[in-house]
């Protein structure tokens, strides 16, 4: 491990937001899913969630630019299970969904634990997901089209969340649990070695100040 590389990994991890996430529901197209994941990495999302009951999860495309290495993906069997899991972790679920009670996405407080729910490219958020969500949000459209591409919508909303969190100073301090931080920095630094340790069900070794492995 080159010390400069190790410092770069720590700088990124130091800004990760454990209480900001995205939940995709049946987003099938690889380029859309990859673009959403790339945006998650850009704004400091630590882990995202996905439900894809009709097929396997999309294959990462070149659009992601390797961001799947830096954003953990948690998959769930169905939307009810996914939302229940997030609510148990004290997340507020904001569904990007057109409805009578939907509000402008900019009126939401994203400094609290937030999960942004995005539906499929064709059908959007399901009725069940819309019912289970805490609130519906929309991006006001002033042109002829009624909605944005799902990955574009994700970027618009996530960068609003980032803006609010920057103003609140959330990126100025480490917000990850120390145990999670230690595990993650090892996996980022030595992914192949980490895989071997996981396979053998062994604890990761410690890392030195410059990222060297200390047995």
Comma- or semicolon-separated keywords:
alpha/beta; single chain; 17% strand; 215 residues; Alpha/beta knot
Structure notes:
This protein has 215 residues and is an alpha/beta fold. It folds into 2 domains: 1-16 and 176-215, no CATH class; 17-172, Alpha/beta knot, CATH 3.40.1280. Helix content is 38%, strand content 17%. Strands 3-2-1-6-4-7-5 form a 7-stranded parallel β-sheet, with helices on both faces. A two-stranded antiparallel sheet has the order 8-9. The protein is globular, with a radius of gyration of 18 Å. The mean pLDDT is 90.
CATH architectural name of the largest domain: 3-Layer(aba) Sandwich
Beta-sheet strand percentage?
15-25%
The main sheet comes to:
7 strands, parallel
Tell me, what's the shape? globular
Return the CATH topology of the largest domain. Alpha/beta knot
Kindly state the percentage of residues in helix.
25-40%
Would you list the SSEs in sequence order as H and E? HEHEEHEEEHEHHHEE
Mean pLDDT: 90
Radius of gyration: 18 Å
Reading off the top of the CATH hierarchy, the class of the largest domain is best stated as Alpha Beta
Structural class: alpha/beta
Instruction: Work out the helix count.
Output: 7
CATH superfamily of the largest domain: SPOUT methyltransferase, trefoil knot domain
Question: Could you list the spans in which at least 5 consecutive residues all have pLDDT below 50?
Answer: none
Which strands sit side by side, in order, in the main sheet?
Answer: 3-2-1-6-4-7-5
What's the count of strands? 9
Q: State the domain count.
A: 2
Terminal Cα span: 15 Å
